[in-house]
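Ligand: zinc ion. Inputs:
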Amino acid sequence: MKNCNLFKACMHFVIISLLTINALSAQHLFSVKYNHLTSEKLSRINTQINDAEILTLTYNRNIENKDFFRIPIVDKKNTQIILLNEQSGNHVVITPSSKAPSEFQLTPFFLEELQQSVLGNANRYLLIESDKELSVKSVSSVSAARGEVYIPQYFYGNSENKNEAYPQDRQIINIYKQKPILFPAFPDDPDNLSYIAQLEEEMSYYAYMYKLPDGTLCIYDYHFNPDNENKTIKGTHLQFSLSGSMNSEQYTATEYALDLWGTQLLGSVPVDISVSFILLEVGVLGRSFRMQDFFDDGSYETPFHNTFYPSSLWNQLVKYDATMMKDIVIEMNSYYSDEFYYGLDANAPSGKRDWVTIMLHEVTHGLGFMTNTTQDGYYFFVDEDGWLNYADYPCIYTRQLYAGLSGACVTELTEYERELLYISNNLYAGRPNSYLLTANEGVRVKMYAPKPYKPGSSRSHWDSSVSFPTFMKYAYQYPLHTFNFRKIGILKDLGWETPDNEPIISVTDIADLPNATSVDLSLTLEGTVLPNTATNKTIKWTIQNAGNTGATITNNIFSANATGTATVRATIYNGIAIWDNFTKDFNITVGKGAQTEPLAPTLFSNTTTEIILNTISDCEYRKDGGEWQKSTLFNELSPATFYNFEARKVENANYLPSPASPASTFSTLPLKINQNEFENIKIYAYRNNVIIQNESNLPVKSVEIFDVIGRTIYQNTTSEIETIINLQVTNGLYFVKIILQNDFSFCNKILIDR
Ligand SMILES: [Zn+2]
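Predicted complex:
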């Protein structure tokens, strides 16, 4: 790790959203060396000590109510402080840098660490101030018994992990003083400037750089430690180390919020959080900072390689404290300190904002519910020195974001596409098979992505339209001290672990599932969840594989538009255990669907022997209950005859034939003879013969001949029509009636004149 200088961080605002830059700083104050002096030099010092007066140092107490020994430094350029176990000779040499203050603060943490790592046990240690030539200026003693000093187990460790060295294997080599640099709300106001400066000083503290056996440098921030104040460590399954400047009422409410979060997540490294009241711009309730991000280049066990992680989470993933920065820095605007409700009962009176709820919100951001993408779609990260850098890879949160309910992950988009998506009002969260999807029953959760873009708010909150109770909308709504599964789900997707949930009665099977339906039929999906006593029994249905059926499911109704087999998945979210879904895939065979009968056929045309119906799409037709035919033409019919016609929809790949339509009755035309045709049938008499000369196309059906008083004297109705009829009759007038095939007839007079 490089020496720590300034860092920038982007901020998140609770109500009014802005993106700006703030900075913290850390200054190198002291170098530390273990057992640095040769035995010769040590004996020179011992000689001087024997003649010196030994003062006993007493404790001082700092702004954060912690004890420390104050050791004045007269001449920084020519001073070193030697901490000595006079019995063993083990010692530590502390050398001020040019920027060191005029005193060294020997903190309980530092003393305890030295006792465990190098000095060893003793009743007291001698604290010797000497010049560089080892001329002793003063000697005092400090009690080595400092009682309970919290040095977390993860920092000691006992494995081969280089970051878990034994106390004696590691060495503090530098001491820094870390303090925030705050931007004044009123830069032209001297009072405000001095207030900010004072606050910066009061919030400063020591951080320690360690060297591990393999040469790795890591930085430990003693501010993590509760020291003598156990109340700063809050949380059961996940601990928070709380510091900051708040009054006791504010502190208690903040601890309460951290306690709530501590029941929800599991972790071995306390989350280092600072909550302070400072004066911010009017209109800004508070802000939280994005702190150092860590990159998994593929060598770690994380949810995603090539991904950045916030330090609060990264520490849990690597199981040690990897950052010297705080994990979460929240600054609330003291301008509004009277407008918060600091009670713990989620019962803020109207007009007051519930402090616990706001803390829950801000801590959620600090745990990783915050994107690392610029407004125009570029990834960035905060490096170990606190600088914002463009990145080639996204953060783990960004990997949860998607375009729309079914579109691509934003990491698959170009920067420009991301920029557009972020103002599309169509941004969603929920990776496939993610905990968030489990929590939201398989549906992505809409994220806040308004147009115009809202810096600090867009993308890092649920959308305002979501209806579940949450404190993660961009604006404060109401007191809420509970956690719904979606929030926990997305944090689990980021890599957070959760404590074991209360056991539930697991689903073992879903029986009585439907297995058949037909095209266009609405099938209500149902099943019997076994056992009947299962804790969670709500089934969500999704198409796993539609095959060729075009199957869809809407509100538990299955429908398909083609025959085939569809695979449906029944999911009971949290059915086996909390976060463990029960799923069962089953097939539904889609048979041919029913069709509605068409309207009765209508007539296109008719002749004496043919009837043509109007075409009805996808239909077939029949006459008088006969065979169905595709053609609309019915021929070889009798003239002037009535027939019944019906239509039905034809059977095809997806549908059975429909029932028959109502019948329509149409008739063929009667035969008609026009005058020309009559003229082509010539009838005349020659002597006592009647001659019928048919030159028309119409066959003659029968011939009758009557006398003038109507007596039939000749009749031929056979098919053998004579064309020359010999009549043995007297001369006179006779009538010849010709009946044609179409039953039309005409009568001609003839005169028999032999
Ligand atoms: Zn927020």
